[in-house]
Amino acid sequence: MNRSDYHIKSYCRIRDGKISKDGELLFSDASEEFPAFIKAAYKYFETDYSKFFKMDNLSKLAFMGAEVLLRGNDEENTALILSNRASSLDTDRKHQAAISNPKGGFASPAVFVYTLPNICMGEISIRHKLYSENSFFIFAEFNPHLLSDYTNDLLETGKAKEVLCGWVDYDKNKYDAFLYVISKKGLLAHNTEELTKLYRTK
């Protein structure tokens, strides 16, 4: 099957205090700090998932993007292919500060569990009951070429019927998420040019 046969089923942007889906603004909040913004978004979308409050900030960011795109989607064979540039660095700093405490540091299980960037995909999989493949890549910037190639391979080989993929980056209160679902049918053609244009759109 050619790349032109796959489509962007839906896409979500989370940036600068705003959450949009398929180009339509769904939620905005003036909070300057990410924790306040993402908590307000959680309440606005009536998420009802208590474990959310135990997640690190990267997982919360990815989780809300997936929530916007996957709520009501019953396709269990949805693969997850995510990427960012900061990995889990924000949580890693908290972990390092805890164990370096001169007064007797110790590793907090609640923090340590999030010192891998792919943990956010586990949170998404549990929430939406996904059982397909997943990978998390670290790039200097959004890389639609590799993501497209990987996604096409998963679909062409039948390893997934749909793929949730994209960019989800968090570090020092700076956040940027661009997530999208690729399927056989959708809004837009799945190609690197279209993905680059959507990612750069403010």
Keywords, separated by commas or semicolons:
alpha+beta, globular, 202 residues, 8 strands, eight-stranded mixed sheet
Q: Could you characterize what this model shows?
A:
This protein is of the alpha+beta class and 202 residues long. Helices cover 36% and strands 26% of the residues. The protein has seven helices and eight strands; from the N terminus they run E-E-E-H-H-E-H-H-H-E-H-E-E-E-H. The protein has helices spanning 34-44, 57-70, 89-99, 109-112, 119-128, 144-156, 192-200; strands at 7-15, 18-21, 24-28, 78-84, 134-138, 162-171, 174-183, 188-189. Strands 1, 2, 3, 4, 5, 6, 7 and 8 form an eight-stranded mixed sheet that branches. A hairpin with a 2-residue loop joins strand 1 (7-15) and strand 2 (18-21). It starts with 6 loop residues before the first strand and ends with a helix.
